[in-house]
Amino acid sequence: MAQFDWPPRPIPGIDAxxxxxxxKKATFRRNAAIALGTAGQDRREEAIRALGRLIDxxxxxxxxxxxxxATTLAAAALAPRIREILSSEDPDLRAASLEFLGRQGxxxxxxxxxxxxxxxxxxxxxxxxxxALAEMDQGACRAACRRVIGDSRSGEDETRTAIAALGxxxxxxxxxxxxxxxxxxxxxxxxxxxxxLADIGDAAGIDVLWRASTNPPDDDARIAAxxxxxxxxxxxxxxxxxxxxxxxxxxxxxxxxxxxILARSGNAxxxxxxxxxxxxxxxxxxxxxLRISGLCAMKxxxxxxxxxxxxxxxEDLVTESIEALALTxxxxxxxxxxxxxxxxxxxxxxxxxxxxxxxxxxxxxS
Length: 366
Description:
The chain is mostly helical. The chain is about 65% helix and about 0% strand. Helix 2 (about 25-35) runs antiparallel to helix 3. It starts with 13 loop residues before the first helix and ends in a 5-residue tail after the last helix.
């Protein structure tokens, strides 16, 4: 049985973590696993060797944290042992191992993970398996997603996860399969389908998104609908934005989404207000304005996004700005991300900037 301390012991440094790997207290070993996942490049190999011991720990919480730490460190040397965990009866351990294997991207794991995506007893594990497939083998992921969304017995969560994974890699009749879910009686499923279509520029789900933006099943669905509408270039969306952006009963965040859509359509006053929000003192609102600029693929906002991504508007907005630049999918954003990546080199945002740049370089030529 695990032993717990009160008050909780703080997460140790790397040296202390290496000592605590052999502690008799499970809490110490668990915290050691978490700490080892933060090891820098100079201590990475030591940390991985220590995690190899914790992966086989007698305590499940320690094993789970050890696998997540191995994922963070991209510990390929531990892959054979973590693969064995896929057979565990513990769904949390299976979930942790799936995240690790997804990050590793070894296509030889795809067949086994495909089976878990469709048949694991735990719905959340099926969802994670789909996400892992998306990272390692698009062909296997497409096939698994099509089977999931085509099976009426699939639960709402795994159906939505399959739609989200299939959208960016859709080929052939995949779009028709997603379109067929617009009329699904489960509203969150139909909204997910409409959002996936919007993300690839298909306006077939406008009516679903409009209803979700005005009468959503929950706040998350409203945000998903508004973000999807930002992706669609269509006169009907612009008309909807003109009718709703100034409504008294609309919240400030909702009005900002409509403002972004109007700015994209050429409304100079809306563009001015979007720029003011993106450069204002309210960092939460600024972060939202930056994201909306990315979703709306605003050419006029690229310079502001680059400025914020380089940290000139404060550290709080760097991550949001890098993500927003990646969302634009505009050719101008590639150059901006190259400059951001160069400026971030060696700093805390280097990895994020480099990943966004790699993604941008894979965008289809416009």
